[in-house]
Design goal:
Layout lengths: L2 H21 L3 H12 L2 H22 L6 H21 L5 H16 L12 H18 L3 H9 L5 H26 L8 H24 L2 H41 L1
Helix pairs in contact: 1-2, 1-3, 1-9, 2-3, 3-8, 3-9, 4-6, 4-8, 5-7, 5-10, 7-10
Subcellular location: Cell membrane; Membrane
Pfam families: TauE (PF01925)
Protein name: Probable membrane transporter protein
C-alpha cells in the first residue's frame, strides 16, 4: 500500500475505534466493510483481527474493573467449540454471503421467543452464542451485531457491557487471526508497517471515547446502540444483496453484448 493509503486507513481506524470505544460495537463492522472492499478476504481478516485485538484489548484494560468474568469464560467455551468445527471445514465464504450474514443475525436474535431472549448471565446461552458468534467471526470477520444484541439483552450497565464484550472480543479476534493467518489453505500475510499503524490508531481512538462514555446514561447508551446496530445491519443486507444480484446481471449483460 502507498503511504497515503496507509494514512487514510489509520484515520479510519481511529474513527472506528472511537465508535467502538463509545458503544463497544459498530466500529469493527464499518472497518471490515472497508477492508473487504480494498483487499482479498483473508488479508482483510488478518488486518481486522490485529486492529480489533488492539482496540478491544485496550478497552478491556481501561474498563477492567467492570468486566463480568463468568460470562466471558462461558462465552469462550462456545468459541472453542466453533473453532474446532471450522478448523475441519476451513470454509471461507464469498463477500456477498459474508455481508448478508452480518446483516441478518441481529434481527434473528431479536425475533427469538421471549423465553429464550438473549441473556449474558445464562450458561447455556453464553455457550450457544459463543459458538454462533465465533462461527460468524470466521465467516464474516465480525460477530458484532449478534454479540451486541446478546449483551444488550441482559441487565448489564453500559460500562459492564463495554468491558465484558471487549474481553470476549480479544479472544475471538485472536482466534480469527490464527485461522486466517495459518489454518486455512490461502493463509494471508500482512505489511508490518500497516499492522503497527493499525495498533496505534485503535488504541488512540479507544482512549478518546472514554470520557464521552462516562458522560452518557445507561438509557442513552442502549437507545443509541440499538439504533446503530439496526442501521449498520440494514446497510450490510442491502450491500450484500446488491453484490449477490450484480454478478448474474453483469454476466447476462456481457453474454448479450457478445452476441
Amino acid at each position: 500500500m502507498t503511504p497515503i493509503m496507509i494514512a487514510a486507513l489509520g484515520l479510519l481506524m481511529v474513527a472506528t475505534a472511537f465508535l467502538s470505544g463509545l458503544f463497544g460495537m459498530a466500529g469493527g463492522l464499518i472497518l471490515i466493510g472497508v477492508l473487504l472492499a480494498l483487499m482479498p478476504l483473508p488479508t482483510a481478516m488478518v488486518l481486522h483481527a490485529i486492529t480489533q485485538m488492539a482496540s478491544n484489548g485496550w478497552r478491556a484494560v481501561l474498563w477492567r474493573a467492570h468486566i463480568r468474568w463468568r460470562p466471558v469464560f462461558v462465552y469462550l467455551i462456545g468459541c472453542a467449540l466453533a473453532l474446532a468445527l471450522w478448523s475441519i471445514t476451513r470454509y471461507v465464504p464469498d463477500k456477498p454471503v459474508a455481508l448478508l450474514l452480518l446483516g441478518v443475525t441481529p434481527f434473528m436474535a431479536r425475533m427469538m421467543p421471549a423465553g429464550i431472549k438473549p441473556n449474558p448471565d445464562s450458561i447455556w446461552q453464553g455457550t450457544f452464542y459463543g459458538s454462533i458468534c465465533m462461527g460468524l467471526m470466521l465467516m464474516t470477520g465480525v460477530s458484532g451485531p449478534l454479540m451486541d444484541t446478546f449483551f444488550l439483552g441482559g441487565k448489564f450497565g453500559r460500562r459492564e457491557i463495554v468491558a465484558t464484550k471487549a474481553t470476549c472480543q480479544v479472544a475471538s479476534h485472536f482466534t480469527k487471526l490464527l485461522y486466517f493467518g495459518g489454518i486455512i489453505d490461502q493463509a494471508a500475510t500482512l505489511d508490518p508497517v500497516l499492522a503497527g499503524v493499525a495498533i496505534a490508531a485503535s488504541m488512540l481512538g479507544t482512549s478518546l471515547a472514554r470520557r464521552l462514555l462516562e458522560a452518557m446514561t445507561d438509557q442513552q447508551y442502549r437507545v443509541w446502540a440499538t439504533r446503530l446496530i439496526t442501521t449498520i445491519a440494514c446497510y450490510y443486507i442491502a450491500y450484500g444483496s446488491w453484490l449477490l444480484l450484480r454478478t448474474p446481471v453483469l454476466a447476462a449483460f456481457d453474454k448479450g453484448g457478445l452476441q
